[in-house]
Design brief:
Layout lengths: L2 E6 L7 H8 L3 E6 L5 H5 L6 E4 L13 E2 L1 H6 L4 E4 L5 E4 L2 H11 L8 E5 L3 H12 L4 E5 L18 E4 L24 E4 L8 H8 L4 E2 L2 H16 L6 H14 L1 E5 L6 H12 L2 E4 H9 L3 H8 L1 H16 L4 E4 L9 H7 L2 E7 L11 H5 L2 H15 L2 E4 L6
Parallel strand pairs: 1-2, 1-3, 4-6, 7-8, 7-9, 9-10, 10-11, 12-14, 12-15, 13-14, 15-16
Antiparallel strand pairs: 3-5, 5-6
């Protein structure tokens, strides 16, 4: 069986092994390596080829014996293949991937002013695709270039913004390089990051109803073309959507919200068991961290203190992938929690008739009353959720 892998500097965020298992029957490894070990790994007889990611898409070019026309044009390599004599040929499948992302998400760049955040290997590919798609202009914003983050105000009229940097990528979720409010003509936002599923940049675009797309479509599309090179076969483009849906289904968290006592923990445990996933209860995390019950935290330290700890524990849970997460009933009281939940989650509202809610050990249900709490929270539950489950059966 042929053996392939992904070469990069830090790869804890990667879904590549998972994706390639869906495109072909070959071994695929995640290969973190420093620059000193790059050439030895690349020439290892244990492997027939690799995908290449940050920070080696440009550096690997000098180690290839031959370059495809597209990689020469773009000046970036993200796939290498070795023949029986060990000759290494470099390819660029990111071009196909980014082009697919734009088409699939209906982001039209023709005639528009575009800026690219970042100047690495992925930036070269994006620049080429945008030019080929007849963008009016393409400007690269980098830390030390002529166009940088100190004078980015000169480009606040940009219509398309593409992030090619790792800013906002797992495990440093929630960060962004720009404030979209500054870009008054913005008509499209793309972030090549795929973990988390929705970066802060993408969530900011969604909040402003700006057409946008994260990097998962590009990741899967370029992997499809890489897999074709690895296996020497043609794979139907229709498989891209199938694999993308499967990967998102496997990696996105299932996050349960709803009134206190609605059965989020009970249902969450059952869902996790059926789905073969881990289960996390945010209230349990809080109690373990504080060494006391939620009720006691409210009594001794107050609600503001509790909400601070709740957001902290929620962030720790939601940065992970593929979990079922039960949240507290008041999670929707803080707007900051919305992005934390939405970055990597499908949100389900657990609905239960008010007269069936369990109130024991739930401070606000007891002190405020479930009717008042529900009136205060129902609109937020609806807005935050993607689906709802009616949980009016007898709880056991």
């Amino acid at each position: 069986m042929s053996r392939f892998g992904l070469i990069g500097g830090s790869l804890s965020h990667s879904y590549s092994k998972q994706i390639h298992s869906k495109f072909g029957n070959y071994e695929y490894d995640i290969c973190e390596v420093d620059e000193e070990g790059l050439e030895d790994l690349l020439r290892s007889e244990d492997y027939s080829g690799f995908n290449i990611t940050i920070p080696y898409k440009e550096k690997v070019m000098a180690l290839c014996d031959e370059l495809s026309d597209d990689s020469k044009k773009i000046q970036s390599v993200n796939t290498v293949l070795k023949d029986e004599n060990g000759k290494i040929t470099g390819y660029n499948t990111d071009y196909f991937g980014f082009r697919y992302l734009l088409t699939h998400n209906k982001i039209d760049v023709a005639g528009k002013k575009c800026i690219i955040l970042g100047s690495g290997g992925a930036s070269h590919t994006v620049r080429t695709v945008l030019a080929d798609r007849e963008a009016a202009s393409v400007t690269v914003i980098s830390r030390s270039g002529k166009d940088n983050y100190e004078n980015i105000s000169e480009h606040f009229d940009a219509e398309i913004i593409v992030n090619t940097t790792p800013v906002g990528m797992f495990p440093y979720n929630g960060k962004t390089l720009v404030n979209l409010d500054d870009f008054h003509d913005c008509a499209g936002v793309v972030d090549l990051i795929y973990n988390p599923d929705k970066t802060k940049l993408i969530l900011d675009a969604m909040a402003r109803s700006i057409p946008c797309a994260g990097g998962i479509d590009m990741l899967v599309a370029q992997a499809k073309e890489s897999s074709e090179l690895f296996q020497g076969i043609k794979i139907d483009d229709g498989d891209i959507d199938i694999v993308t849906d499967e990967v998102r289904s496997e990696t996105l968290n299932t996050i349960l919200i709803g009134m206190p006592g609605a059965g989020k923990t009970m249902l969450g445990k059952k869902m996790a068991e059926r789905m073969g996933r881990g289960f996390v209860d945010v209230d349990d995390m809080i109690e373990e961290s504080e060494g006391m019950s939620v009720e006691k935290i409210f009594d001794e330290k107050g609600e503001t203190y509790f909400r601070n700890i709740e957001s902290e524990m929620l962030e720790k849970a939601c940065i992970r992938n593929g979990l079922v997460i039960a949240t507290g009933g008041g999670i929707i009281k803080r707007k900051v929690n919305y992005n934390i939940i939405k970055q990597n989650g499908v949100v389900i509202w657990i609905k239960r008739d008010l007269d069936k809610l369990v109130t024991d050990g739930r401070p606000l249900s007891t002190s405020t009353g479930v009717e008042k709490l529900y009136e205060e929270r129902k609109d937020a539950y609806k807005y935050w959720s993607d689906f709802f489950i009616d949980n009016n059966q007898e709880m056991k």
